[in-house]
Amino acid sequence: MYKTRHAVFFLIVPVLLFMVFILLPAISAFFLSFTSYNIFDPIEWVWFDNYKEALQDSDFWNALGNTVLFWVLATPTLVIMPIFVAVLANQKVRGIRVFRLIFYFPVLVSVVVTAILWRWMFNLDGILNYFLSVFNLPAVEWLTSPEMVIPSMALVTIWSGFGYYTLFYLAGLQTVPKDLYEAAELDGAGFFKKHLYITIPMLRPVIFFVSVISTMGAFKEFTLMLTMTNGGPLDASTTVVLLVFKEAFQGLNMGYASAVSFLLFLFILVLTLINEKFIDRNPSGD
Amino acid sequence: MGQPSTEVKPYLKKEKWSKRKITRLGVIYFFLLLLASFTIIPFLWTISISLKGDGDPIFSMPPQFIPEHWTLNNFIEVWNTVPIPTYLRNSVLLTIFGVSLPLITSALAAFPLARMKFKGRQFLFILIISTMMIPSEVTMIPMYLVINELNLMGTFAGVIVPGALSPFGIFLLRQAFLNIPKEIEESAIIDGANVWQIFWRILLPMVKPMLGTLCILFFISEWNSFLWPLLILQDESMHPLTVGLYKLQGTFVTNTRLIAAGAMIALIPVIAVFIALQRSFIDAAFSSSIKG
Asked: B212 and B96 in one domain?
């Protein structure tokens, strides 16, 4: 009943936009990484020179190290902690909806505002150090010491993201059959056993999904570092994408920056495949 | 079989109402409040700073949460010295286009991809979806060059047009269109409707919930978008709130109270929309998480 011209009529504008603003940039990003493009000089093919340069550049390895550290700190927390939060937010108690909204709200706050809020939390005379002093712990240089700056960023990321992942788990919890819990209770399973043997295995697809999404998020994070510390102190919070950003738009080394972003893309791809191998096994296997 | 269960159940229920239930509730609320304070304290702290008068120390040990000389002067001063109404107008303008354009193009593309049969349909769909996997950081540089080539640098169009198509939106709307039974279109054709009428009058109203979900998701990302406007718009009079606030931090490095007031002003629209649409926000996040 529909003719091809109907499809063309509906698709013409979206497909044009797709080609110019999605497909073309994606393809040219690949080609750009083999050139020495810097906006001013004509494009010159340098083949793998950008990649070689990146792999020999200590700035690149420093940024990759920072990124991996950030990922190691942020992602496992963002995969595990929201499971507990979701179980908690799934309890049928008074006011639970308000709590869910409160947990979710930081997700909506722009990075610029998040950076402003947390810069003060991290101040030497700020609230976090006050809490530490209550427990007689020494003050921490959250943003000004190279060792603490990435853990601090991870803390902010957990603050702003845990509500988002909680919703994924909450949605997953709705699919767990209630009689499984009832059967376990009759068998005398307590709170922890119940969740360890029923909730976690049933949530496995969601856990996989959340680890992929949060891994990608962690490896792409840089706006927080740009707005909070601009990569400092001493490049200690320069992530790979922040390096790409600085190389491309401050150094105008577009070709080099493209190569670095492609290396990162490959890195994420490999991680995702490993992740799939370990977490998304067929549950019937055990 | 039925006999033991009728004996056991009332016994279990009776136990639940006693001490155990109270401790359980206590533990639940303890953790809920702990998490809630983790979420809320940064906001409260910023509100507190934004209301502090000259006599109140911003940082002190122990921190002073409730201002002694509280004042609204910080808000007035930041409003007068920084073109906040201009930033607000720009943010609203960019958000209107950043929400409506991808909504329209997603609907236009999703309809034939879900309901029509034509050559290359599957290929086109897979091509569109697979680009979702390419990180935007990779395409950021060529996108910048495309905008430069099109002479859109420094214009609102340069910010809006790259986001005018959303593969994610096409994907979600196509799912929604797929769920509509074929008979509805057939009976519409018998009644003499043309293709446009079927799309506009019959199918589109049926996917309203998904349109609402996308509206909210696009609103969040547009209102908060920072990096792309920062790259494209150099002229201060064109900055959205996010970029304005970022620059404000540079201008008033020392005046913490003003920055706090500015941050609060930027938060007000988000809070207002969130409170008005709270239920839909959670639903939007839910459906995007299940289907995406």
From this structure: yes
Is the CB of B28 less than 8 angstroms away from the CB of A118? no
Assess if residue B101 is contained within a domain: yes
Give me the mean pLDDT over the B280-292 stretch: 63
Cross-chain residue pair A4–B118, CB shorter than 8 Å:
yes
CA distance A151 to chain B (A): 16
Tens-place pLDDT, residues B201-260: 999 999 988 898 888 889 888 999 999 999 999 998 999 999 998 888 776 566 888 888
Instruction: Let me know if residue A21 belongs to a domain.
Output: no
| Predicted pLDDT of residue B253 | 61
Residue B50 belongs to domain spanning = 29-70
Selecting from A85, A130, A223 the residue whose C-beta is nearest the C-beta of B61 gives: A130
Q: Report residue B124's pLDDT band, with 50, 70 and 90 as the boundaries.
A: very high
Q: Which of A14, A110, A159 sits opposite B105 (nearest CB)?
A: A14
Cα–Cα dist A183/A181, whole Å: 5
Instruction: Assess whether the previous peptide bond of B62 is cis (omega < 30° from 0).
Output: yes
pLDDT at B30: 95
Given a contact cutoff of 8 angstroms between Cβ atoms, the answer to whether A141 and A202 are in contact is no
CB-based contact B263 A249, cutoff 8 Å: no
- Whether residue B156 is found in the same domain as residue B56: no
The reply to whether B247 touches chain A by the CB within 8 Å rule is: no
**Both B46 and B145 in a single domain?**
no
Is there a contact between B109 and A26 if contact means CB atoms under 8 Å apart? no
Q: Tell me what pLDDT residue A285 has.
A: 38
B60 near A CB under 8 A = yes
Indicate whether this complex's ipTM tops 0.95. no
* Pick from A101, A168, A258: CB nearest B289: A168
In the predicted model, what is the mean pLDDT of residues B10-19? 57
Angle, CA B183 vertex, CA B179 and CA B186 arms, to 5° = 125
Is A127 in contact with B41 (Cβ distance < 8 A)?
yes
CA dihedral A176, A177, A178, A180 (to 10 degrees): -100
pLDDT digits (tens, 9 = 90+) for A71-97: 999 999 999 999 999 999 998 889 998
Taking CA B169 as the corner, what is the angle to CA A16 and CA B218, rounded to the nearest 5 degrees? 105
Domain count, chain A: 1
- Choose among B287, B257, B239, B203: nearest CA to B74: B257
Considering the domain boundaries, does residue A40 fall inside one?
Answer: no
Distance between CA atoms of B139 and B130, rounded to whole angstroms? 14
Q: Are residues B122 and B188 in contact, defined by beta-carbon separation less than 8 angstroms?
A: no
Q: Are B41 and B101 contained in the same domain?
A: no
3-class SS of residue A142 = coil
Give the domain CATH number at A243. Answer: 1.10.3720.10
Same domain, B120 and B207: yes
Q: Which regions in chain A score pLDDT beneath 50? A: 282-286
Which residue of chain B has the CA closest to A261? B138
Given CB atoms, is B224 within the 8 Å cutoff of chain A? yes
